[in-house]
Design a protein that fits this description.
Chain lengths: 504, 340
């Protein structure tokens, strides 16, 4: 597999010496990449390494400052996403951009619907062709249903159907698996493997290294906008790849410190929210990291939301440091010392347009008040303290958080909540969509916080993270707590068995 | 009802919801007419019905144009001013020489409207200024222009060529021209939006502008087209206004933009874009006009008309929101079943 699978044929799509700058920031510097028909090619790199910029260059969203795009060996320029699509380049984003008000079939064929006489849309043909595509992909979707309400996995399949309908020769997948459950990932991979065998070139981006090794033949690594290597996956180890991405050996990715659990900080007793989760009881002690594992949709985030008072619970009780919490009151939860770092930082964790200092200050406006007004100076001091403690990478504290990378955004959310000096931290998917370097930092931070006596409840779909970080693993399945596994007994097999209901 | 349709398919469910909107407007109309006729038998007299249709026609034309704009997630507040400007300038033009043909007058009116629409469209799609601000600005600019041209004068029916006035009040086979024109425009627009690829683009853009851009749809061109159509139809409405009323002062249709937006939203075109039909919008316009006439017949203080329009608008928006939530929940449940 040292030779690219294309043989003598030129790469379907290639970048040669491409650079792209945004203002003073050099996003790509002299980057080259070759995609051959029939190969799945991984693009690896930390957040901010330039992967997204590269994808947008390939898809006609950005135009390179210097360098060339080659299609079948011939120089080509994409002036718009439409140009790239017409050239057979299709892209599937982590969160597909759909038209929620249009039908699934229209989402596939928008702008090029099958025509009948007088150039009218031939709806029958459109629905028929959509149904055919879904049959080819082996999925059961109704072409006539509206796209609103489709799961992210189904939306991605619609996007793949769209790519198929265009006879796409290059399929670019930008972190397609980040929001999928295990079964959905398997289904997606089967589809992608079939496409590759049919001669499609696939560019695959994922932070889950296992997936790169499972799906791809070659991998190109970027670091700080620079090309590092393009090489076959076979023969590489995880550590090799991480070293290429980070440019140094990582400290252990899961720096768990041993702690002695203290008294019970959070006690959840027979908590039930009808139709969502049932009879959930557990305790988290000071100094402990307890992971809540399970498949997507098992009700983990919902339990966290109910504990924090975002959603109402129907039965049961929650105690923090021995005192009961009222239902559905985030204010009471906060003053009792609970903090919740939500799963979706863009939607739930941050005010994206506002500055770093404003976001960090948001949870403590009471303490930042001087008389009736918020003190900007106090806000800034507080933000600076936490930015330093969390090793946040930023230009100015007054920058909007939407310019930060995903990992740094997560640090801002952490700072926002840690600055309330919580006794119990609930953190939902702490490292989703975060590069390995920052991931290790977040883990180190959680570990230190626990060692300082914080009780941490961590929800995670990342099994290695669960196994590496947790003192105990609680497993949920279909709204019920089905297993509690101590650190020593927790293995990938034991947790998955419990999560999928194969446990004895 | 919804539970049964949910099993059959999301599409039929959604169709039903929108048809439900159109049907409920028809039901409201029937109820309104029945009650009013019960109180005062003259309401359904030939002249009464004819007046309603004549008055509604102009609003329908504006509502059709506005639908294009709102479906793309934008808004056009300048249409009232455009109607005023066109009515006055075309009136002025015709009053100067009765020999000038009315076909030419119509073309002139549409052209003036289209130029206004072009200005809106350019600013919104290329200038990337929010539509609300742009069209609020052009509302005042066009109004000012109108006042400047009118200079306190007034166009009177006696100054206008009879051919124009007969277009406003005459008809063929007992059917007045105005509603005929309005229905023709509505059907053509409705057919285009539903059955042509470029027509579906408007919905796609309003549904998700970002996705439309990534899908390579000509977003700016479509938004331009929407404003051009809204402006052009406002121009046509201006000429018809002149033909219908004969007497025109500078701010003839001042405030109409809000009636138009109300009609469109009451008719089921979502103010957030991507949803609705021109048929619904036209029915909304007919309903608002009928309410006005009914209140006159019922001898209710005209002040109440505004309050009722407002209440209807709030009702429509609440119903939309409720239905959207319900549909979303049903779809989620269906998809959850698919997935497992």
């Amino acid at each position: 597999m040292t030779e690219p699978p294309g043989g003598d044929a030129p790469p379907v799509l290639a970048l040669r010496g491409v650079s792209k700058a945004f203002g003073a920031v050099q996003a790509l510097r002299d980057v080259s990449l070759e995609l051959f028909a029939g190969e799945a090619h991984a693009l690896a790199g930390e957040n901010g390494a330039g992967k997204s910029t590269l994808v947008k260059t390939l898809t006609g969203v950005y135009r390179p400052d210097t360098g060339q795009l080659l299609l079948d060996g011939e120089p080509v320029e994409f002036h718009s996403p439409a140009d790239a699509q017409n050239a057979g380049v299709a892209v599937i984003y982590q969160e597909p951009t759909m038209f929620p008000d249009l039908s699934v079939a229209e989402n596939i064929f928008i702008g090029r619907q099958p025509r009948a006489a007088l150039r009218r849309i031939d709806r029958g043909a459109m629905h028929g062709r959509a149904a055919e595509l879904f049959k080819r992909l082996g999925v059961a979707l109704d072409p006539e249903q509206p796209a609103r309400g489709l799961s992210i996995a189904d939306q991605q399949l619609v996007e793949i159907a769209k790519a198929l309908s265009r006879d796409a020769r290059v399929l670019i997948m930008d972190e397609p698996t980040a929001a999928l459950s295990g079964a959905e990932v398997t289904r997606l991979f089967n589809v992608v493997k079939a496409l590759r065998e049919q001669g499609c070139a696939v560019l695959f981006i994922s932070h889950r290294l296992d997936e790169i090794f499972e799906l791809c033949q070659r991998v190109t690594t970027l670091r700080d906008g620079t090309w590092i290597a393009s090489e076959p996956v076979a023969g590489m180890t995880h550590d090799d790849l991480i070293r290429r991405m980070v440019g140094r050996d990582l400290d252990a990715l899961y720096p768990k410190l041993d702690t002695v659990p203290g008294e019970v900080a959070l006690k959840v007793h027979r908590l039930t929210r009808e139709g969502v989760f049932t009879d959930v009881s557990f305790e988290v002690r000071r100094g402990e990291i307890v992971a809540l594992a399970g498949l997507v949709g098992a009700g983990r985030s919902e339990v966290a939301r109910a504990i924090f008072g975002v959603d109402r619970w129907d039965a049961g009780s929650v105690e923090v440091n021995g005192r009961g919490l009222p239902a559905a009151s985030p204010t009471a939860a906060m003053s009792a010392g609970l903090a919740l770092v939500p799963e979706d930082r863009r939607q739930q964790g941050l005010v994206m347009e506002q500055s770093i200092e404003r976001n960090i200050g948001l949870t403590g406006l009471k303490n930042l008040r001087r008389g009736p007004v918020i003190s900007r100076a106090a806000e800034r001091d507080r933000a600076r303290d936490w930015a330093i403690r969390l090793q946040l990478k930023f230009n100015r504290l007054s920058d909007a958080v939407n310019v930060l990378s995903g990992g740094n955004q997560q640090k801002v959310v952490l700072g926002k909540w840690l600055s309330t000096r919580p006794g119990v931290l609930i953190i939902d998917e702490p490292t989703r969509g975060i590069d390995v370097g920052t991931k290790a930092e977040v883990h180190r931070l959680l570990s230190e916080l626990a060692a300082d006596g914080l009780a941490v409840l961590m929800i995670s779909s990342d099994l290695p993270e669960v196994l590496g970080m947790a003192d105990r693993v609680l497993v949920m399945q279909e709204g019920r707590l089905v297993a509690e596994i101590p650190r020593d007994a927790a293995t990938e097999e034991s947790v998955m068995a419990a999560a999928t209901g194969r446990a004895s | 009802m919804t539970a049964v349709t949910a099993g059959r398919g999301g599409r039929s469910l959604v169709d039903l919801v929108f048809r439900a909107r159109e049907l409920s407007i028809v039901a409201a109309l029937v109820l309104l007419v029945a009650v009013t006729t019960g109180v005062n038998g003259n309401f359904l007299s030939g002249q009464g019905v004819k007046d309603i249709f004549l008055n509604a026609s102009i609003l329908v034309l504006l509502a059709v144009g506005q639908s294009f704009v709102i479906i793309t997630k934008n808004i056009d507040l300048s249409v009232g001013s455009v109607v005023g400007l066109v009515a006055f300038t075309v009136g002025d033009f015709l009053a100067a020489d009765h020999g000038r043909g009315i076909v030419f007058a119509v073309i002139l009116g549409v052209a003036i409207g289209a130029v206004c629409g072009l200005a809106n469209g350019l600013l919104v799609s290329f200038g990337r200024v929010p539509a609300l601000v742009v069209t609020l600005g052009t509302l005042y600019v066009i109004q000012g222009l109108d006042h400047f041209i009118a200079h306190g004068r007034q166009i009177n029916a006696v100054d206008l060529p009879p051919a124009l006035l007969s277009m406003g009040n005459g008809g063929v086979l007992g059917i007045p021209y105005l509603p005929l024109i309005a229905v023709l425009v509505m059907v053509a627009a409705g057919y285009y939006l539903r059955s042509y690829a470029s027509g579906r683009d408007f919905y796609a853009i309003g549904s998700s502008p970002e996705a439309a851009r990534l899908a390579g749809l000509p977003v700016r061109r479509r938004v331009m087209t929407a404003y051009l159509l809204s402006g052009g139809l406002a121009g046509l409405a201006g000429v018809l206004w002149l033909a219908r009323f004969g007497t025109v002062v500078a701010d003839a249709a001042g405030g109409w933009e809000l009636q138009v937006v109300s009609a469109v939203v009451v008719g089921g075109v979502a103010i957030t874009g991507g949803v609705g039909s021109v048929y619904g919008a036209a029915l909304g316009a007919l309903l608002l006009t009928t309410i006005t006439s009914a209140l006159v017949v019922l001898k209710v203080d005209p002040f109440w008309q505004q309050a009722i329009t407002g209440a209807l608008l709030l009702l429509a928006i609440s119903v939309d929101r409720l239905l959207a939530l319900r549909v979303a929940r049903i779809l989620r449940r269906r998809n959850a079943r698919h997935g497992s």
